[in-house]
Amino acid sequence: MPLLTGETVKQVMRDLYGYEVSGADADAIAHSAGAMLTLAAALGSIGLAGIEPPFGYPVLLAEAARLAKAAS
Amino acid sequence: MSIPFQELLEFDVATLSGKLRARDISPVELTEAYLGRIEQTDGALRAYITVTDTLARKAAKKAEAEIAAGKWRGPFHGIPIALKDLVYTKGIRTTGGSKILADFKPDYDATVWARLKRAGAVLLGKLNQHEFAYGITSSNPHWGIVRNPYALDRIPGGSSGGSAAAIVARSAAATIGTDTGGSIRIPAALCGCVGLKPTWSRVSRYGVIPLAYTLDHVGPIARTVRDAAMTLQVIAGADRNDSTSSRERVPDFSAGLDRDISGMRIGVIRELDYGLSDDVAPSFNAALETLRSLGAIVDHVTIPSLPLAAIMNGLITWAEALEIHEDWMRTRPNDYGDDVRRILEIGMMAPATSYIRAQRARARTLAEAIAVLADRDVLVAPASAIVAPKIGTTQILEAREDGVDVVAAILRFTQPFNSTGQPVIAVPTGLSPDGLPVAMQVIGRPFGEPEVIRAAAAYERARGALPPPPEIG
């Protein structure tokens, strides 16, 4: 399990999001997030080499065209 | 024009449509029957956040005049429907089930509502849900706890809990829900109605408050498979306002409704055929026997990475939901309910690498699913390991005597198909010994809704009508 502690959670939330949580809440968040991130590590085991993320250029192009049309 | 209100409420959309067109019933009378039913039941159910009675009456009068003049718009002309409160309705409060958007009135219609409105549907109101669709109980701290029509002390499931409760309580003829991890199928399954999550991109998401852009689906919750197919027919298809909407041809979703399934090849997903409660397992096994008795060829298949697809779904939702809610989390954290605020806080710990890896991994699971569907027409799985839990339950105890998280006992069956984007229908398989609904999922190839609908309709016909819920109100 990743070494995610309540202190780390408090610091990340404060520094990245300007968000404050109590010590007890930070511990609970660390527990839940740590468990999920451990499971996330297993994703690499199913063979991801060569797999592209599903973010295609056609969608980017279509979205840009839609925005351009709306602006004109 | 003399059919009793109670009888009107029992007709499905397909039947109502024929009677409206033939002018055997009036849209005005039908709308009054539904508004009366909402009045009768919603104090107990809390399925609605907003009832648009004045607008509904006006729309019903317009529909009546048009039909009388021979201007029939199609099967939804004069049909009273309701929308999950994530769906933008111009000038009508759209809260997303939140306090944050309690007074928000959009200045345009979501495409899904624009299409239903153009088809002549009458909007009864906006439906209660889990706050911002981020949860499966629909125990909403701002707009009331939605209750299951079969047992008012139990959850209806979520996040589209109001949509399913309204269908089963007969307080809407058809409804729209959304599904990011199971939010159409779970409430349909726990309430005893039909929920259809189409292929991702089949239905426009324009004007629907997002939870997770790459996992959100919009679809019908309805009384019957036929009604779900008819609703999908209206809302499906490319939309220039949604760049991700598919240009895939929209087939006739009702074409296979009355066909048999003799010779149809159906795979039971091994990874989801375990850990079922005693309420669910017998019903699912009986459903498989029914499919065999109809001539289907049923065997087990394996999709090895499927359990990880639920993890993919969770990681992606963490990141995308937080990106959507980040500003409000900074400025109005105390305006969220405790559970939704907590899961958004957890999302703050999600590294970008996990998000990208989860997105890439989706292709692996979908590839495995497509491979098993190469020589099968559809797949089936339970919709949940358990029946609707009591409101407030967080853990259940199973035979092996360790606590099983309620959310996990439900979401592991539904989340994988948001990751793969496949079409899935949830159809009831009966009631448990305690009288609570049980359901299975029928899963198809991408854009294979017609096969899914055909299999579910044949099963539904063979199953027969479900016993109705106890009288409400």
How would you summarize the topology of this molecule?
The complex is a heterodimer of chains A (72) and B (473).
Chain A: H1 6-17, H2 23-41, H3 57-71
Helix pairs in contact in A: 1-2
Chain B: H1 5-10, H2 13-21, H3 27-45, E1 48-51, H4 53-68, E2 80-84, H5 111-118, E3 122-127, E4 139-140, E5 144-145, H6 161-168, E6 174-179, H7 185-191, E7 194-197, E8 217-222, H8 225-235, E9 265-269, H9 281-293, E10 297-301, H10 306-331, H11 338-347, H12 352-372, E11 378-382, E12 395-397, E13 403-405, H13 406-414, H14 416-420, E14 424-431, E15 437-443, H15 449-463
Parallel strand pairs in B: 2-3, 2-6, 9-10, 9-11
Antiparallel strand pairs in B: 1-3, 4-5, 6-8, 7-8, 7-14, 11-15, 12-13, 14-15
Helix pairs in contact in B: 3-4, 10-11, 10-12
Question: What characteristics describe this protein?
Answer:
heterodimer, A: 72 residues, mainly alpha, 3 helices, 64% helix, B: 473 residues, alpha/beta, eleven-stranded mixed sheet, 15 helices, 39% helix, 15% strand, globular
Structural account:
- The complex is a heterodimer of chains A (72) and B (473).
- By secondary structure, chain A is mainly alpha-helical.
- Chain A has one domain (6-71).
- Chain A has helices at residues 6-17, 23-41, 57-71.
- In chain A, helix 1 packs across helix 2.
- With 473 residues, chain B is α/β, with parallel strands linked by helices.
- In chain B, strands 1-3-2-6-8-7-14-15-11-9-10 form an eleven-stranded mixed beta sheet, with helices on both faces. A two-stranded antiparallel ribbon of chain B has the order 4-5. Chain B has a two-stranded antiparallel ribbon with strand order 12-13.
- The longest helix of chain B is centred in the last third of the chain and has 26 residues, at 306-331.
